[in-house]
Amino acid sequence: MEGLEGRLDIIFDLDDTLVNTGEFYRKISEQVGNWVVEHINRRLEDPAVQKITLEQYLVWHDEIDTKMADDNPEFQAWRYPLSHNETYLRCCQLTGLIPDKIEERRVYSMADRVYDFPEKHRLIDGALTVIKTLKSQGHRLHIYSWGKTTIQQDKIRETGIGKDFDQIHVVPVKDKNAIKRIVAEFATDSSPEQIWVIGDSLRKDILPAVQLGYNAIHIGSKNGWSHDHAKVDTTKFYALPNVVHVPALISCHYRNSEIARQFENSLKVK
Ligand SMILES: [Mg+2]
After folding, report:
1. How far apart are the CA of 225 and the centre of ligand 1, in A?
2. Based on the domain organization, do 109 and 133 belong to the same domain?
């Protein structure tokens, strides 16, 4: 559709779209991984048994964490620490060591610190300008976040972005029905062409939006998680390396979708 002006409903994912989150998970995974690798390798007495590396630990952890998230689409705060615990058990199994209950508890509590990381949550560079720009253009802005309400509210409070949003939705499951419910309640006066979903998860943000016929922008994230991957027809959504370019892309789209594709292509990493 060309030349549409007026108010839009713009639905933003929070984690790794507006707020840095993946980097905390990565840092904690490396800390826990280093600790486990050191403790397991220290206990290995048989020189024939190969020592474990941090890289191996991180690959196994990603496999286990992704499988647990696939099996439990509802957000569970215990999943991430428990997935480290399971990885510790896998390391013991592969090296023939008997798991140590104290070590197991230590692994769980180290990983659980991801929810009260000592550093403050930070907005992604340029995100505040994006929010202010879209707000000043009169659009309705929504935060649409997967997680536990108290954890996500802490991030919104620390970054001070709550006041710029018309609605904040923290949901335990992100799928087609979750977005549909938000639109049915808060955006009944918008047509699908006036609704945008912006996020870094192909699986949880982009696929449901495309299935519903809404506009969607996938934001590239350097801390991507295997669980977030999905196959989606690339002609049905836009992809940007960073949230910074969102207002320009939306404005191009309503001038002419060809221009928007040219803009998108000009930002692709060569
Ligand atoms: Mg996200």
Report:
1. 9
2. no
The pLDDT, as a whole number, for residue 73 is 85
Number of Cα atoms under 13 Å in the Cβ half of residue 73: 8
Longest CA–CA span in the chain (Å) reads 71
What tokens does 254 get? 């309503």
Q: Which residues of the chain have pLDDT under 50?
A: 1-3
Which among 112, 105, 106 is positioned nearest to 76, based on CA atoms? 112
Do 245 and 125 fall within a single domain? yes
Residue 17 CA to ligand 1 center (angstroms) comes to 6
Residue-averaged pLDDT of the chain: 93
What are the tokens at 202? 């192909």
Q: Which residues contact 112 (CB under 8 A, 6 or more apart)?
A: 80, 81
Predicted local distance difference test score (pLDDT) of residue 117:
66
Tell me which residue has tokens 């991984």: 33
Percent of all residues in the chain with a pLDDT value above 70, rounded to a whole number: 97
Ligand 1 centroid from CA 78, angstroms: 18
Q: What is the DSSP letter of 162?
A: G
pTM score: 0.90
In which domain, by residue range, is 89 found? 22-116
Residue type, 40: I
**Residue 218 Cα to ligand 1 middle (Å):** 10
Ligand 1 centroid to residue 146 C-alpha, Å: 8
Rg (C-alpha) for the chain, rounded Å, is 21
CATH assignment of the domain containing 164: 3.40.50.1000
Residue 188 resides in a domain: yes
